[in-house]
Amino acid sequence: MTTAVRERTTAETSAPRGSTTRPALSDTRTLRGPSSRALLGFSIMAAFIAGGIWSMIELRINIASLIVGFENAVVFFQDRVGTLEWPELPDLMESTAMTLAIVLLATLLGAIISVILGLAAAFNTSPSRATRALARTFVVVMRAIPELIMAIVFIRLFGGGAVAGILALGLNSIGMLGKFYADAIEDHDDGPRRALESGGSPRSRQIFGATIPGIMPAIVAHGLHRFDINLRASVILGWIGLPGLGADLSQALGVGSYHRAIPLALIILGICIAAEILSGFLRMKLLGRSEPSRYGFIWAYHKVRDRYRTNGVTESTVKVSDTSRLGDRTTPPWNLGRISRVAAMGLFLALIVVSAWYAEIDWVRFFEGFASIPDVAGQFWPPDDGDIPETLWAALLTTVQMGLAATLLGAILALPVGAMAARNVAPNPWVAQIFRNLIVVTRGIPELILAIILIVIMGMGQVAGTLALALGAMGLLSKLVADSIEETDVRVQQAISTGGAGRFQVFMAATVRQAAPASVAHLFYQLDVNIRAATLLGIVGAGGVGYYLLNANRVLSFEVVTYILLMIFVVVLILEFISILMRRLLR
How many Å is the Cα radius of gyration of the chain? Predict the structure, then answer.
């Protein structure tokens, strides 16, 4: 034992109990540096930032490009658009109804399959580890395959009707809903299910009697969120011949009728924003995560509801003395809450029936499509590079660069917007509400519509697609950042504030440090989303591998479609591995 250590040990043992002894300045202690986990996490973040800056330089996203784009916009609207021609109301209603029918049925299909997969993938309901691994793998595969490629395959099998769109959007929904539902099942209190299990109930009764009723709000809330995503994604399917608003927009742009295309794009934009606002309100009510806003239509709704409840009978107004009149029945009374739930369920079932009828599904062609699977599979396999492998890999690199640059730009924009939208950071509730409304509107804008508008204004190329993805990323990341900040422990901020720290010091020292892990995890999720979205934007002229994907489909070179799919699949798997690694490092 060295002299310094012996002296320190003697001082510690001889000191009175309860006293505090400071080590001498000459005491040598080993300073622990950053752990290997922290170094790996910082390295991945540094690589992401460097990749985003490099991508912006390579794609020439700079002030000069934006100035040129603005000048082109002025010329475009003066010389090429002219008087806007809005579609006839009957035609617009027909296309809108077809789009909504496809999206509703696709979301329902994806939700049903995802619940089954979620039960198989969750550790507390899965029959075995092998089943859990298989279900998780299938969910990842569905997330890796773009809905556009699924639609191309299903069109070959079932024709160009609504079935191909329903199956493509529905199966692609599994990639998100399957993961969310499995996580919801694992996070849910498993006590009721175990109670049924200990009582000898079969597995089916455990699932339908305890697990599914417990996570039903999460099932509906995530389904509504996926409905918004499918609504925006349905537009791109019009470029390969599926009916709806996307097909009308594709036809108008194909012949250069910008005076018809711009109104259609604005209509789709309005529908998506309205759907985002409505579904966001319903998700808030189902999950009960935050108090409703005091402003806007939500405030008006609550004022009318509260006035109605004061004049009627609600669950909270039934007094104990009134329960004697209800008797000993076990069924709940028909109060406002129960009537609302039954009415909502009836409306939902009616919408499903109307959607199935309006979609005009050819069931004979549907079942005949299964018999043609071997012939169609032969068209897509084996994969072929079309004698242009260098071109395809260079286009894929451009797609990855677009995703990196858009995610970095979106994060730069999202940090201040998300901070101002957080109620515990914003200067006052009005500021938080304004930025919350900005986030809602931005999230409702489909990246494809924004890319189309920017392309026709600024010209074809990667700049327009990257800017469209960046604005879309800002909408989602801003909401996630705001939610992460609001979920921080306010006691830490209060402790630092009472020590004399200013508002900005409290924000940087306490709020940012607490919200950083969740924000970083959201960032890499957004990177995955943006790279897959960049693939689709190439179809409308935004650059990248999507352009070659559309050309291969047009000339019926389906083996090239498979080759491009495998390329995208490799990139998605790499991103999935990085995302999982970062989530583990941040725990």
Answer: 28
